[in-house]
Specification:
Oligomer: heterodimer
CATH superfamily of the largest domain in chain A: P-loop containing nucleotide triphosphate hydrolases
Number of domains of chain A: 2
Order of helices and strands of chain B: HHEEHHHHHHHH
CATH architecture of the largest domain in chain A: 3-Layer(aba) Sandwich
Helix content of chain A: 25-40%
Order of helices and strands of chain A: EEEHEEHEHHHEHEHEEHEEEHEH
Number of strands of chain A: 14
Helix content of chain B: over 70%
Radius of gyration of chain B: 18 Å
Shape of chain B: globular
CATH topology of the largest domain in chain A: Rossmann fold
Chain lengths: ~300, ~250
């Protein structure tokens, strides 16, 4: 078993009457690209804040690369780079000053070579001596990512990093984060864009009302909750043999569930034997959004 | 050590980048006090024998600037970081509460002493300056700046909006400084006010600081040093306790 980059056990946190987290346990292995999904208020940011030491849990433990976030907070925080959700910045400083300060807070002085490299990868080099106030929203977001990387943390947490970010930056950012993951960094991502989690992450946890309601590999979740569907336009009545596969029906249009691509042959055979002609045909691959809605619906 | 020095440097750079507002403006304000009060009362009020009123006024104004600016630095820096959210950049790294405390308080002391030094420089030419016991002056300046820097941290931690911080500044700090004998000797006050003044720790800071200039004071300097020293220790302990607990900083 690989060592855990993040190990969270029975974490609970209340804000007055609100139960933000209710016994969350998660183990994220080193090198994983992990997604934390859930609707607003599910507890994603609270969980990340506890792992980052910004919020203290009422009970339970959290470790980053084996270091307890309270008892061994210095080591835990050195291991972790967090890109916060809010677009925050210090208006007094330039991009370079901001990054130098941030490195210094981690006890690193004079590593301008790494700061230059990070700025280069995030297309910030031209803005190095520009005051933070003068940057566009997208540029500020890049600086936030750079700030999370100045101390070369093995574990990187991105809390909805692409909210309100244009397509170009989003693509660039994912390319960069993918590279970090290939280089061995563990990446944890929360996002509202399910297609991003589907495209990037190997494993997914879904949170709802402070509980983990699904935790599996992206592939398994898609296979279990979603699977392949085929959308058909038909002339005539659907044969009874296919009734159990119906997901939805709208006049002459019907959507059928398939276990795998091999079952398509069987469905087409049944339709042929029933003498039906097909006017429309569309195969729909598994979709994380559907998984998400079904998992959330199941726990409603 | 790098964590502390970086945070300290950042805090100093923060006020230095806006030094017109943070250093030059309070120096000018103090000069105006000297001109106005000196003109209005100079020659009519005698506080200590052989000390003209304007000369008496200068150390009070210097110390008031030290105290107010030390408070303003840590409190405004912290509340700005809290309200804009950039405090997260200091909470995510492995900075200990002690490093955090030392960096903020020392930077506040630098600002307080820079403004106090500025006030002294621009006012000294107008008065008959004496430095009878400069070590006392230095001791009270350092302790006072540290105390107010630490108090500024408490205010910054407690306040959730600028309005609350302004209330702390205007309803606590300002009355305590103005009623501490900056502009007068408490010996000239009616007995009730004299007694009340003796309950104000700011009075001992101003009085002890002034002793370094003239070698005379309302209270023996050692007694003032004891009061200021104990107040400093108590406020620092309270601030460290708040920082350690994460009160209003870590949810």
């Amino acid at each position: 078993m690989t060592a855990a980059a993040i190990d969270v056990r029975d974490i609970a946190k209340r804000y007055g009457a609100l139960r933000a987290l209710d016994g969350v346990s998660l183990r994220i292995a080193e090198g994983e690209f992990f997604a934390l999904l859930g609707p607003n208020g599910a507890g994603k940011t609270t969980l990340i804040s506890i792992i980052a030491g910004l919020v203290r849990a009422d009970s339970g433990t959290a470790r980053v690369m084996g270091a307890d976030v309270i008892a061994d907070y210095r080591r835990a925080r050195r291991m972790l780079g967090v890109v916060p959700q809010e677009l925050v910045f210090d208006p007094f400083f330039t991009v370079r000053e901001t990054l130098r300060n941030q490195a210094g807070y981690y006890g690193i002085r004079g590593d301008d070579a790494w700061i230059d490299e990070v700025m280069h990868h995030l297309d910030l080099s031209a803005k190095a001596d520009v005051n933070m106030r003068a940057l566009s929203g997208g540029m500020k977001r890049r600086v936030l990512v750079a700030q999370a990387l100045v101390h070369k943390p093995p574990v990187i947490v991105l809390d909805e990093p692409t909210a309100g970010v244009d397509v170009e930056l989003r693509q660039g950012l994912w390319q960069f984060v993918r590279r970090l993951n290939r280089d061995g960094h563990t990446v944890v991502l929360t996002t509202h864009y399910l297609e991003e989690a589907e495209a990037l992450c190997t494993r997914i946890a879904m949170l709802k009302e402070g509980r983990v309601v699904a935790l599996d590999s992206t592939q398994n979740l898609l296979a279990t909750f979603s699977g392949l569907t085929v959308h058909l336009g038909l002339e005539g009545e659907l044969p009874a043999t296919l009734a159990s596969r119906v997901v939805s029906r709208d006049g002459s249009h019907v959507t059928l569930r398939l276990g795998d691509y091999g079952e398509l042959e069987q469905v087409l055979g049944d339709l042929r034997r029933a003498g039906l002609s097909i006017t429309e045909f569309e195969l729909q691959p598994p979709d994380l959004e559907e998984v998400f809605l079904r998992v959330m619906g199941r726990h409603a | 050590m790098t964590r502390f020095t970086t945070l300290f440097y950042k805090e100093v750079l923060r006020f230095w980048k806006v030094s017109f507002q943070t250093v030059a403006a309070p120096v000018l304000t103090s000069m105006l006090y000297l001109v106005i009060f000196g003109q209005a009362f100079g020659g009519r009020i005698s506080v200590y024998e052989d000390v003209p009123y304007t000369s008496f006024l200068v150390p009070g104004l210097v110390m008031m600037s030290v105290l107010q600016n030390a408070f303003a630095n840590s409190s405004s820096s912290l509340i700005q970081s809290k309200i804009t959210g950039n405090i997260v950049f200091m909470l995510l790294p492995p900075i200990s509460y002690l490093e955090f405390f030392c960096a903020y308080v020392l930077a506040s002391m630098v600002r307080g002493l820079a403004v106090g030094g500025g006030v002294l420089l621009v006012t000294i030419g107008f008065v008959d300056a004496r430095f009878e016991a400069p070590l006392w002056t230095l001791a009270f300046a350092l302790l006072g700046a540290g105390l107010l820097g630490s108090l500024g941290l408490i205010a910054g931690i407690w306040a959730e909006k600028f309005d609350q911080l302004a209330a702390f500044q205007n309803f606590v700090i300002l009355p305590l400084t103005f009623l501490s004998g900056v502009f007068y000797s408490v010996h000239t006050l009616p007995p009730v006010w004299q007694t009340l003044s003796h309950a104000n720790p700011f009075f001992y800071m101003i009085d002890g600081f002034r002793y370094g200039f003239f070698g005379v004071s309302d209270v023996p300097p050692l007694a003032s040093l004891a009061v200021v020293g104990v107040s400093f220790a108590l406020v620092c302990a309270a601030t460290l306790w708040l920082l350690k607990s994460g009160y209003k900083l870590r949810g």
